[in-house]
Write a structure and sequence with these properties.
The complex is a heterodimer of chains A (353) and B (289).
Chain A: E1 5-9, H1 15-39, H2 44-53, H3 59-84, H4 92-109, H5 118-144, H6 148-168, H7 203-220, H8 222-232, H9 234-239, H10 244-271, H11 282-292, H12 297-321, H13 327-347, E2 348-352
Antiparallel strand pairs in A: 1-2
Chain B: H1 3-32, H2 40-58, H3 61-85, H4 90-108, H5 122-142, H6 144-154, H7 156-161, H8 166-192, H9 204-214, H10 219-241, H11 248-267, H12 270-276
Helix pairs in contact in B: 1-5, 1-8, 1-9, 1-10, 2-3, 2-4, 2-8, 2-9, 3-4, 3-8, 5-6, 5-10, 9-10, 9-11, 10-11
Classes of the chains: A mainly alpha (353), B mainly alpha (289).
Chain lengths: 353, 289
């Protein structure tokens, strides 16, 4: 028996399906995820409970959910500018690292400061560090026509080695028993927590503010309109006389600054010092968050919470189910696979004869 | 420096560089057909763990090699289906593959960390890697099929108009690349280490990706580039041993910096870019239906 499958471009492009497909992708991920648990000889229902429900069943867990979601949301909101503009900045991990180096460096430089201005200065330098690292692929792209995907990716590893150099070299804590980590930041350089005893910090407010600003920019400003047009058709944007090179610069700087901000929040918030592994892949995972949130600011907030849950669930799974915490990556990878796959049905009609 | 020391260093460079040659030459063929696969790291890890587990369970090198290859076929087949049939974004799909592969390999290999095995002699693979580069260079430049692969990568619409099957060609090159990455992983867990450890490929997938660009998509240059990258990494350790004060991190970031410089050099001139990079790289092929 031969099936003839014919596909046709949709003319009735549906917003409903567009926003529904992340939910379908999540459902499919859970369905396939249950098979993974079965293969590992675990009860899927029990495992899902440990993975997705028990991590947020107490106040500590909910605070941790926001701790993980904050950097993901901030980075993904920044990345959405690039992706809307069809610029593939995949070096957010490096920009995050640079933000941590710049902002954290300020914290170490003034390590005996008690000034109220230390933290704002660190935050400023965090954003500058990330933006600086993102300008490199932007300059190379606009001046030399260099592919930004490859340069931003390569620069990520350069940034990670620079951080490594600092924490084993000049910034190593003399009282740190030779461990590759810096001195702790002074109290004035630590991000205030929202609730005493929990780790959730004021970065949450930043994420929400950036979300609102992004919503306004996308829907109410000429810049947002230019991004939208360029993303839909670069030719139309050229005819309209939009300066594409400037758009590349602005989107790279915005996304770099956001990633740098997220990096600084990580080191001056939950971590409190600089060391090698400041980010559990946030910069790459945020790409999933941005896609899953459909590049929509509010969608990104929702998807950052969901993906943050896979981090928490994975930690609990390691503790209670004795499976490696990398299981979180399996879910993250699957959800992106399914999301990209279901997008096909959004763009095309499928007929089976 | 004595002769023995130099030979010793060269030997280590040979042994440690081979996975880069395997993964790099596979990715080179994939990219030549116009597809950018960022999933190398994931493919390598899954290839490494499947080979290792099979060897521990069956004790048979042939089965372990076979299953490692199959893992590459399946994973890159999924990647191919998504980017070719469902026309998904290649960057996002490749990253998904890497993230998925890191997680899957860690889960599969959990019970096998620290299990001792008898490693295979790496020299078989070293010889095969050289032959492979020769084969790919010959295939791409001298055979008709190689020409079709390049045509599909340069301009898929023209290739399609000439009657070549773009989708099928790309399926084959993606799967070839996937299998080569699995072999690179297999080599690391069975010959090089020989053991299994979570995340043991340690970023070699990304270096292999850089390598393809560094080599401006040319097989022989890829071989030379791989040994330069591999040599720099080993040299760093030896220089530190004889007391050179330059920080090791600067050597480690060399491959990435060198790749950026090469990329800037070839991209800054339109003709040079056309002569180096496959023009349809990372552009999805949509038939007019």
């Amino acid at each position: 028996m031969v099936f003839l499958i014919r596909v046709q471009l949709r003319e009735d492009y549906s917003n409903l399906i567009f926003y529904l497909s992340p939910l379908v992708a999540v459902a499919l991920t859970l369905f396939f995820g249950s098979f993974i648990f079965l293969i590992l000889d675990l009860s899927p229902i029990e495992s899902f409970k440990i993975f997705f429900i028990s991590p947020i069943s107490n106040s500590y867990g909910i605070s941790e959910l926001f701790v993980k979601a904050t950097p993901l949301a901030i980075i993904a909101l920044g990345l959405s500018y690039c992706f809307k503009n069809n610029i593939y900045n995949i070096g957010a991990e490096g920009q995050l690292t640079m933000g941590a180096i710049f902002g954290g460096g300020i914290g170490l430089l003034f390590n005996d400061s008690t000034s109220f201005f230390l933290l704002p200065l660190m935050i400023l330098f965090g954003a500058i560090g990330g933006a600086f690292w993102a300008t490199i692929p932007a300059i190379l792209k606009t001046k030399f026509n260099t592919n930004e995907i490859l340069t931003s990716l390569m620069l990520t590893y350069v940034a990670l080695y620079i951080l490594d150099y600092f924490v084993v070299g000049p910034w190593k804590d003399p009282a740190g028993y030779g461990l590759p980590k810096s001195m702790p930041f002074p109290d004035a350089g630590r991000l205030p927590v929202l609730i005493d005893g929990l780790r959730v910090h004021i970065g949450v407010y930043f994420a929400l503010i950036i979300c609102l600003i992004t919503y306004i920019i996308y829907n109410k400003t000429l810049f947002g309109f230019k991004l939208k047009v360029t993303g839909l058709s670069s030719k139309a944007s050229q005819y309209a006389g939009f300066k594409y090179k400037n758009l590349i610069f602005y989107t790279f700087i915005i996304s770099g600054a956001c990633a740098g901000l997220a990096g600084l929040f990580e080191v001056s918030g939950p971590i409190g010092l600089l060391y090698r592994d400041i980010s559990p892949n946030y910069g790459f995972t945020a790409i999933i968050v941005a896609f899953l949130g459909r590049l929509n600011p509010f969608g990104i907030i929702l998807s950052s919470l969901l993906i943050a849950l896979t981090y928490l669930g994975a930690e609990d799974a390691q503790l209670f189910l004795k499976i490696p915490s990398a299981v979180g990556f399996v879910f993250q990878g699957l959800v992106l696979f399914f999301l990209l796959g279901t997008d096909f049905l959004n763009k095309y009609k499928v007929f089976i004869k | 420096m004595s002769i023995e020391l130099i030979i010793g260093i060269l030997n280590i460079v040979l042994i440690s560089t081979t996975p880069l040659v395997f993964a790099g030459i596979g990715e080179l063929v994939t990219e030549k057909s116009g597809v950018l696969n960022l999933g190398l790291e994931g493919l390598m890890l899954v290839g490494a763990v499947t080979g290792f587990i099979t060897l521990v369970i069956t004790g048979n090198y042939f089965y372990s090699l076979f299953l490692s290859i199959i893992s590459g076929v399946i994973l890159s087949g999924i990647f191919a289906f998504l980017v070719l049939n469902l026309m998904t974004n290649q960057i996002a799909t490749g990253l998904a593959l890497t993230i998925f592969g890191i997680g899957l390999s860690a889960m599969l290999g959990k019970k096998f960390g620290g299990t001792p095995i008898d490693g295979l002699n790496p020299y078989y693979f070293i010889v095969i890697s050289f032959l492979l580069v020769f084969f790919v260079a010959y295939f791409l430049s001298k055979t008709k099929t190689g020409l079709i692969v390049r045509a599909v990568g340069e301009n898929h619409n023209s290739a399609y108009a000439l009657g070549y099957n773009v989708i099928k060609t790309r399926y084959l090159t993606i799967i070839f690349g996937g299998v080569m990455s699995s072999l690179a992983g297999y080599y690391i867990s069975i010959c090089y280490a020989p053991m299994w450890q979570e995340g043991m490929t340690a970023g070699r997938g990304w270096i292999a990706l850089a390598l393809v660009v560094f080599a401006t998509w040319k097989p022989w240059r890829l071989l030379v580039g791989a040994y330069i990258f591999g040599g720099v990494a080993i040299m760093q350790m030896n220089l530190q041993a004889i007391g050179v004060k330059l920080p090791g991190q600067f050597f480690n970031m060399m491959p990435y910096l060198a790749t950026i410089i090469v990329l800037v050099f070839i991209s800054s001139n339109k003709l040079r870019l056309k002569l180096s990079a496959p023009s349809s790289l990372n552009i999805p092929f949509e038939k007019n239906q």
